[in-house]
Amino acid sequence: MAKKIKPFRIRLLIFCIACLLAACSPSTPSNQIRLVEVTHSLFYAPQYVALSKGFFKREGLNIVLTNGNGGDKTMATLLSGDADIALVGAEAAIYVTARSTNQPVNAFAQLTQTDGTFLVSRTPIPSFKWSMLKGKNLLGQRRGGMPQMVSEHVQRINGLTPHQDVNIIQNVDFKNLGNAFLAGTGDFAQLFEPTASKIEQAGKGTIVASFGKDSGRLPYTCYLAKEKWLAQHPDLARRFTRAIYQAQQWVASHSAEEVATAIQSHFPDTNKDILIRVVKRYQEQQSYATSPIIEEPEYNHLLRIMKESGELPKSIPYSELVNTEIASYVVKGG
């Protein structure tokens, strides 16, 4: 006859199995932050400085960085819970919030405060004016993305009607824009760095204007997190923001050469001279934010640009989307 197992032993066995499964199952360490960036770009230099100079480590944080390869994929990664924080354009948060409030997200810190694209001309133009785009073919960016909306904004404030006065080509993937321009597409191209500087260095084009300089300040690239995550992990969010703030201040107080040296390991395939040229250009036009606080006037400017482009699905109030408590606490020395 089989031995009858006593209820106590059954409960003990279940408890031991549960403990074993808990020990074997993956968990997120309390000091780890899974960060997904919309793309890997020199435009985000302060973030890489925070990594290479040990600012995150000083805060006791282990950053696991992944590339989201686009706004939609980056937001999907955040909303699915596969990332804790996303570095992406603020417009992505607006689109998500306008569609649903089931998983509210907050922008709690900014990294860049201007657009990061430049106008590249196929031929040198010593005294460029935006009116010179009239009747020309402009190799542009994706519809609905902030770079394209900024381009149209700059055209409007300079007396041009986008898609009417300027033929904007938008059927080329982001990753292929540089090659398309080199192959002969467009009289002008709207390009991010380092693609713009590489084309200029090769003598295949000339940077004649800056979209960031001429469109004004706005919370261009921000750190987003689920509202629930921020409420559950306020200390992690503060330590993360503190590291970013320290990096922003470091970038603002050091030369382009020093910044380029600090981030070189994150861009091993990019020539040091190009790194210096790009960082200097972004520093000169103050693209790198010196504070993580997202200001309301800049946020409203972003909404206006989206609205005039016909891409604003709903006007999301600043108080609903932006969380200033964390950044303000850090900037005040907390």
TrEMBL record:
Q: Does the keyword Translocase apply?
A: no
Show the GO cellular component annotation of the record.
periplasmic space
Main localisation: periplasm
Source species, domain of life:
Bacteria
Compartment list: Periplasm
Q: Which family does it belong to?
A: Belongs to the bacterial solute-binding protein SsuA/TauA family.
- The protein in question is named NitT/TauT family transport system substrate-binding protein
